[in-house]
Amino acid sequence: MEIGLFTFGDIGTNPQTGLTVTAPERLRNIVEEITLADQVGVDVYGLGEHHRPDYAVSSVAVALAAAAIQTKNIRFTSTVSVLSSDDPVRVFQQFATLDGLSDGRAEIIAGRGAFIESFPLFGYDLDDYEDLFIEKLQMLLEINKQEHVAWPGSKHTQALDGLGVYPRPVQDPLPIWMAVGGTPQSAARAASLGLPAAFALILGGEWARLAPLLQLYHQTGHSSGQDPSRLRTSLNAHAFVHETMEKAMDIYYPAHSARMGELGRERGMSAQSRETFTAFCGPRGGYFVGGPTEVAEKILAAHEALRFERIMLQFGVGVIDHRSMLDAIEILGTRVIPEVRRGLAKCS
């Protein structure tokens, strides 16, 4: 099992210090965090694409490329690339370039995204939300298969009559995952295409609620005749680790509460109380927050039930002090990951 980190590059006011974190500062901090994650043995690092004033990352491949030449082992992925409002040719080229810079460590997680700002920004109609993603995903997969692409084009994509798409990646093919936001339709589509699937556990609850979706994914893949080795799954969840559960929650809750409260007000949702947050940090809750042992034990328990091949932990929900982020990454790499590896070895 791979253990990774991801962030959206949250910016704004730190609720604990009152200091404002700007986009340039956060981007430079992200590069430092990725470099440390590589050094302490984190397997994967992901950045999510957004086009809002509260996130620093709109160009995932560019930001990851800044870290690619400073690292040796860690893999890079988008979490996610908003394919619906982008050009599949450019998405492929950008990540193929990242793959070259990193000597074969790049991946794409393609999805619709959790926000809609990119649609009007790039001139797309939200009424085409579903069709845009399906058509552009199919085009991206064709580009990934062959250098010269025979793509007929249609309403939302241009025709490619045997044109070459360059550069080609070091990996052949470039790994492409599909983001699954919690619907049976998305899980079934990813499986029928033979794509690895990243299942998002974002709004808390219990991690066990994803079990039916993962079961559907594997059943659909099997009935579609897909190679079982291609049917890989990832669990993506809010998380934070520090020396103790109390310390982790004291650092994480103010930032998490502020950011989720802002998003909740936008969407007409009520704020999450400290009691609810604490419950979601419990052994079966959807937040992987705690001391090293609590987080390791929760990862092992979730893996035993869901059998995912990767877990991606979103440490930076809200604006958190950079020093605290570095401390958390070091604890994850030096204490949590070894404990998880030992637990997996005992079960094998």
Description:
This protein starts with a strand and ends with a helix. It is built from 11 helices and 14 strands. The protein has 348 residues and is α/β, with parallel strands linked by helices. Helix 1 packs across helix 2 and helix 10 packs across helix 11. The strands form 3 sheets. Strands 1, 4, 5, 6, 7, 10, 11, 12, 13 and 14 form a 10-stranded parallel beta sheet that branches. The longest helix has 26 residues, at 322-347. It has a single domain (2-347), classed as Alpha-Beta Barrel (TIM Barrel), CATH 3.20.20.30.
Task: Throw out a few tags for this protein.
single chain, 348 residues, alpha/beta, TIM Barrel, 10-stranded parallel β-sheet, two-stranded antiparallel sheet, 11 helices, 18% strand
Return the average pLDDT rounded to an integer.
95
Indicate the CATH architecture: Alpha-Beta Barrel
* Number of DSSP helical runs: 11
How many structural domains can be distinguished in the coordinates?
A: 1
Record field, number of beta strands? 14
CATH homologous superfamily (4th level) name: Luciferase-like domain
Largest sheet data: 10 strands, parallel
Q: Note the beta-strand portion.
A: 15-25%
State the secondary-structure class.
alpha/beta
Global morphology:
globular
**C-alpha end-to-end distance:** 12 Å
The helix fraction, in percent, is 40-55%
| CATH fold title | TIM Barrel
SSE string, helices as H and strands as E: EEEHEHEEHEHHEEEHEHEHHEHEH
Give me the Rg, rounded.
Answer: 19 Å
Uncertain spans, ≥5 residues at pLDDT below 50?
none
